[in-house]
Amino acid sequence: MQDDDVVTINLTSAGKTELVVSCPDKSGLGLRLARIIFDFGLLIDKGDFSTDGKWCFVVFHVSPDVHTGNGSSGFASS
Description:
It is a single chain. The chain is about 15% helix and about 45% strand. The protein has 1 helix and 4 strands; from the N terminus they run ββαββ. The chain has one helix at about 30-40; strands at about 5-10, 15-25, 40-50, 55-65. The protein has a 4-stranded antiparallel β-sheet.
């Protein structure tokens, strides 16, 4: 089993962004991850959680929040 927390960000074929988190499971983890995603002005289109009680695998499909104009993370793009 892997001992490191892993976060990957992938662009899917449908043009959506997929965030994958693999880390030790903790109570409230989903809420904390969702809050971080919302704080960056993104919407969660779809999510999937899997856990064995000790290790957690989470996948979010996200997109910019175009309705409120909060689709920017605040980071300058190159």
